[in-house]
Amino acid sequence: MAQGQPPVEAADGLTTRQRRNQPLVIVHTGLGKGKSTAAFGLALRAWNQGWSTGVFQFVKSAKWRIGEQSALETLNEVHRDTGKGGPIEWHKMGSGWSWSRKAGTDEDHSRDAREGWAEIKRRLAAETHTLYVLDEFTYVMKWGWVDIEDVIETLQDRPGYQHVVITGRDADPRLIENADVATEMTKLAHPFDRGQKGQKGIEW
Amino acid sequence: MAQGQPPVEAADGLTTRQRRNQPLVIVHTGLGKGKSTAAFGLALRAWNQGWSTGVFQFVKSAKWRIGEQSALETLNEVHRDTGKGGPIEWHKMGSGWSWSRKAGTDEDHSRDAREGWAEIKRRLAAETHTLYVLDEFTYVMKWGWVDIEDVIETLQDRPGYQHVVITGRDADPRLIENADVATEMTKLAHPFDRGQKGQKGIEW
């Protein structure tokens, strides 16, 4: 990670310290791996700062993130028991949830998605967390279950010091435009190309 | 993350289970963020599987990964005290180490790098860990401190079930060719563009 001088001078009239303390919208998108994994890595930094982290998992199965969930919930228990680090909450958006749409079940998924987003909006308004991980949230916008303009407006207007990380493929260009940091993960080589499926410890 | 069928049939004669249990070489490269963060996210999954993880940090300053180090070392303590999860070791390659080369100090850095790589080779031969995170290791090869052909040969010949994740910009095409999973992180938008520097909890 670059540690040098920023390439351009800021024109916003803020001091470096003020800019440093600005809350960020971070997007991890693209077809490659690491989008969610890097978001959960950020949660480690947040924990170490003593921040409150809320993870909102917009995916189908409990299996896929079970490693991260277990480890982050353990760090939350360490915080609860010893005061070290910060609290971490992990929320799954509905039990039957799927990022691969299935005919006949869309209605429930879209309702779950809207309910999840409504809860996140309430928490942003209440400044509940310092870091929000909205995992696979891009799909919810892509499928029209949550209005992207509402998301952008909510993020722009959120009060206080709250970082929001959004992961998933096909991030809308408007979301990227409104992000402070947006990274595209691109696949260069992958075991799927050789007919290999995922394995424990690596994929979940 | 895709959960569907692999796009091509494997021609290696292995069953799905055999292929699933193959140890992987994973490369995170590119100019964007998330290369190291995603690697440390993988360590969360490894911890949850009860695997032994070794992190080898090829960077200048203790500051840059202090959040991840603190959180992963806490998970290691949980493992030590309760048996939950797996052990995690965190090693820094020399105190004066720098990924931005400085005139007059290269000799020590290159010696540190070679010593670090020699230790990793010993551990791979001894099957010490199940997951190795070689953070910012691409620079060590780029600068010629460690021979890339030696790295590739060592990875190809490593015994047992050992996953190796290598992060850093400018990964050599030969390394990518020999990886099972290689992901490029590309910057789409970034606060540096607006003159913003890194901030705690996000950058370290």
Provide a short characterization of the protein structure.
Chain A is an alpha/beta fold. The first copy, chain A, has helices spanning 16-20, 35-49, 66-82, 106-126, 137-142, 148-157, 173-177; strands at 25-29, 53-57, 88-92, 131-135, 163-167, 181-189. The two termini of chain A are 26 Å apart.
Walkthrough of the structure:
Two copies of one chain form a homodimer. Chain A is α/β, with parallel strands linked by helices and 204 residues long. Helices cover 39% and strands 17% of the residues of chain A. Chain A has one domain (23-97, 104-187): Rossmann fold (3-Layer(aba) Sandwich). The longest helix of chain A has 21 residues, at 106-126. Chain A is globular. Mean pLDDT of chain A is 83; it is low at 1-9 and 96-104. Chains A and B meet through helix 1, strand 1, helix 2, helix 3 and strand 6 of A and helix 1, strand 1, helix 2, helix 3 and strand 6 of B. Strand 6 of chain A pairs antiparallel with strand 6 of chain B.
Number of domains of chain A: 1
Quote the CATH topology of chain A: Rossmann fold
Largest sheet of chain A: 6 strands, parallel
Largest interface: A-B, 86 and 86 residues
Q: How many helix segments of chain A?
A: 7
C-alpha end-to-end distance of chain A: 26 Å
* CATH architecture tag of chain A: 3-Layer(aba) Sandwich
The helix content of chain A, as a percent range, equals 25-40%
